[in-house]
Amino acid sequence: MISDMAMPNMTGGQLVSKILKLCPDIPMIICTGYSAKISEKEAVKIGVCEFLDESACFFSINRHE
User: Fold this and answer.
1) Residue 24, CA distances (Å) to 7, 27, 33, 42 in order
2) What's the rounded Cα separation, in Å, for the pair 64 and 43?
3) How many degrees, rounded to 5, is the angle at CA 57 between CA 17 and CA 16?
4) In the 3-class helix/strand/coil scheme, how is the chain assigned residue by residue?
5) How many whole angstroms from its chain centre is CA 33?
6) pLDDT tens figures, 15-65
7) Cα–chain-centroid distance for residue 42?
8) Would you give the end-to-end CA distance of the chain in angstroms?
9) What is the pTM of this model?
10) Please, which residues have CB within 8 angstroms of residue 59's CB and are 6 or more apart in sequence?
11) Distance in angstroms (rounded) separating the CA atoms of residues 5 and 63
């Protein structure tokens, strides 16, 4: 699953935590332009498999197809 870090009702980090509690095998990717709310190290700690700058997201997604 791919999530932005900034969302209206929760952060991408909060969404990752909730999803991984229900489905721990889902690969999680956070894409962010800039976020002081979570670092790459913190994202990996909560289960994120990729932490991408938004400018890299489109390229990276296409590369995996």
Assistant:
1) 22, 8, 26, 17
2) 21
3) 5
4) CEEECCCCCCCHHHHHHHHHHHCCCCCCEEEECCCCCCCHHHHHHCCCCEEEEHHHHHHHHHHCC
5) 12
6) 989 999 999 999 888 877 766 667 778 878 888 877 776 666 555 555 555
7) 11
8) 14
9) 0.65
10) none
11) 21
Q: Given the structure tokens 């009702």, which residue do they identify? A: 9
Q: How many CA atoms lie within 13 A of 45 on its CB side?
A: 6
Alpha carbon dihedral 11, 2, 20, 32, in 10-degree steps, equals -40
User: By the 8 A CB rule, do 57 and 63 touch?
Assistant: no
Q: What residue type is assigned to position 57 of the chain? A: C
